[in-house]
Automatic annotation (TrEMBL):
Gene3D superfamilies: P-loop containing nucleotide triphosphate hydrolases
Family membership: Belongs to the ABC transporter superfamily.
Domain ABC transporter: from-to ranges: 5-237
Top-level taxon in the UniProt lineage: Bacteria
GO molecular function list: ATP binding; ATP hydrolysis activity; branched-chain amino acid transmembrane transporter activity
Identification of the protein by name: Branched-chain amino acid transport system ATP-binding protein
Keyword Protease: no
Keywords: Amino-acid transport, ATP-binding, Nucleotide-binding, Transport
PROSITE patterns: ABC_TRANSPORTER_1 (PS00211), ABC_TRANSPORTER_2 (PS50893)
Amino acid sequence: MSSILEINDLHFHYGEIHALKGVNLTVNSNEIVTLIGGNGAGKTTMLRSITGLLGKISSGEVRFMGERIDGKKPHKIAELGLAQCLEGRHIFSNLTVRENLNMGSYLRKDSGITSDLDYVFHLFPRLLEREKQRAGTLSGGEQQMLAVGRALMQKPKLIMMDEPSLGLAPLIIRDIFSIIKQINKDGIPVLLVEQNSNAALQVADRGYVLETGEVVLADTAENLRSNDAVRASYLGAS
Ligand SMILES: Nc1ncnc2c1ncn2[C@@H]1O[C@H](COP(=O)(O)OP(=O)(O)OP(=O)(O)O)[C@@H](O)[C@H]1O
Ligand SMILES: [Mg+2]
């Protein structure tokens, strides 16, 4: 199995705050890997330091398809095929659904854009129905679908998602997770950050548990689901 993303001994500081303390994490081709942990554990910091959004990391290395990407600018990293759906979604409220999707593919020069748009509309028929609607007026769940759709329009080689289920109703959450599974079946590896650990460990192959900037557990999703400490702290089991 070849690794798509490999993170070695990653440290990150916000000024005095040591937010990531030597994290190691790997995503192999065809895997769904989940990163779980409580509020402030460093999950968003992980994703943002991988995509270059936080500037220079303190130390360590990030490799994407074998190539060092730490120190590269976010748009260069996106061009290599690393897409992310950010926490809080960050869609363009004043643009239509269709225009938002076009923003996802604007860096591409290949001829597959139309068929990828068909693919996104096939995954999310709701977005096709609302193609001309301003994104800011979509419901929360629809905005999340749009954020995932826009990331797919980058034709990513890896997609990273930051809490895609945040604030959504149970039925929509189920849809989002089954779509994540589908995207992965269609050949795209996924790094999934979630506080909804139950659902995340249902779809993932492997998982990492992050606590105050450190990986305290790394195992198959199945083993994590039956781990007593994980069950007590993250799965709501007594
Ligand atoms: N811009 C910033 N400046 C200073 N400290 C920050 C900044 N952003 C995050 N932090 C701190 O870094 C730590 C990790 O934050 P991060 O957002 O990565 O956590 P998280 O695991 O994503 O949490 P949540 O589940 O609540 O989203 C927290 O203690 C947070 O207060
Ligand atoms: Mg976060």
